[in-house]
Amino acid sequence: MQSAMNFLKRRLSENSFTSNLPNGYLVDLGDEPQRPPVPVATSRSAEVELSRDQQVTPAPISHERIPKTDVVTDSASSNQQSGGFFSSFTSGNPLSRMKQETEQASKTKTLLAIDDQHTDWTKYFRGKKIHDFTIRVEQATFDEITVTANSAEGVTVDIRCVRAGSKISKSFKPHFLLIRQSPRSMAEGEDFRNLIIGFKYGGIPSVNSLHSIYNFLDRPWTFAQLIRIQKRLGSDKFPLISQTYYPAGKDMLTASSFPVIVKIGHAHGGMAKLKVNNHHNFQDVAGVVALSGTYAVSEPFVESKFDIRVQKIGGTYRAHVRTSISNNWKANMGSAMLEEIPVSDRHRLWVDACSEMFGGLDIVSVKAVHGADGQDYIIEVSDCCMPLVGEKQEEDRQIISELVMQRMKACMRPRPEATPRGQNQSSRRQTYAKQNPSRNMSAPPSAPVSAPGSPPDSPRRSNSITSNSSGRVQGGNIRSSAPSSPGSYTGPVAPSNEEETNAEKIRNLRKSFASMFGD
Fold first, then answer.
1. Which run of H or E residues covers position 9?
2. 361 burial type by CB count under 10 A (0-12 exposed, 13-18 middle, 19+ buried)
3. C-alpha distances in angstroms, 379 versus 196, 240, 249, 302, 322?
4. Is 189 left (phi over 0), alpha (psi -120 to 50) or beta?
5. DSSP output for 128-160
6. pTM: predicted TM-score of the whole model, two decimal places
7. pLDDT (0 to 100) of residue 65
8. Alpha carbon separation from 283 to 89, 255, 263, 293 (Å, rounded)
9. pLDDT tens per residue, range 96-142
10. Alpha-carbon dihedral of residues 511, 513, 516, 519, nearest 10 degrees?
11. Rounded distance, CA 106 to CA 104, Å?
């Protein structure tokens, strides 16, 4: 043990050993001054006093402080950079975020535009407001949305779609609808009338109205309305083509004349239309209709020179002429030349008459065929789902957006604040006093207010009896004490038995006084 202690003493006394230690190794890392090294403690019996030349000379120690890293920052500076002490609570608090979202939602009105992605309706409503409400546009097609309608909470729409390769899912409550896509097509399973019913169930306003859109789901039903217009205006002003309706394929026995055009089901846009030249072909088509399980209509084939299309959007009218250059009997199929023409009074009458269908149509178009015989034949009418044609499609979309703005302002007009009942009565009295100043001034201060419906200037009933100098009672001022019905005026009537008795007493008193003073 003694030899081990002596070895340590000799090792610590060497300058080379202490010089190889790192700077500050034997020094506290704080700012306190350097303390002398503590000598190694040994037992009393083993203490050896070192000579002056054998004492340990420590190596020079650097007092440079270790630089602080950027990991730990001052709390005050960190709070200033992050927006204060309470910013950590407000920025990450879910309740505050929900409150901000609720306030933002209360200042916006959501417009659901049902249309394909070829037209971006967001840009037509960007920055527009109605009654200090900002318009937020959500756009999707019928097959991308689901609708849940509640009689108390309204309509909730869920959108699940794919945009730019990413899946989007959102839920919201719409305030207005713009429908530009047909709710029904020839494809299997693409009958979205259930969504139209859901929107109607929740009372969501739209352009056109949901009532009219539902009635346009079946073309024969719409054609029945055109027949009514023709009967009202006459065939000269409203030249509607003749048509035959078959509820099922088994009812298609034969046509009155050939060639005819057979339209199967509710198809539109030139689909499911066949030209039949004879009876045998007609029977073949009847078998196809029976297999499809739907209805069909037939109309005479018209050798057309061109088609006429008249549209009305709000108060804007346009007319186009389409001439086929592909020698196809369907003018809307193949190559065609389209030209805008001035709207004549005749064309304006057509579209105005059709715009009154089903309670009114804001967007409507009428299609007619100009035959080789020089006659016009109206063949169909379309609603808000009509396609836009011509060189002014962008202008037409702008007109549609302005029309939607007008309808939204009318539907979302702020309700007037409710006033107390007494305040309403006082305001009515003041209004009547201003309109009838003479009657108001002539009425005595204590005159009671007349009952509702009674004449304001009706005289007050009085039971007083007056007599003239001859002692005769003037019964003209005496009115019946029985209450009259409100609004009825009671003229002079004969006095009652009690009044006659009082009058008789007064006459007797007058006679007795006259005889006494006469004597």
1. helix 2-13
2. buried
3. 26, 7, 22, 11, 15
4. left
5. -EETTEEEEEEEE-GGGEEEEEETTTEEEEEEE
6. 0.63
7. 47
8. 78, 10, 14, 15
9. 666 666 656 678 999 999 999 999 999 999 999 998 899 999 999 99
10. -70
11. 5
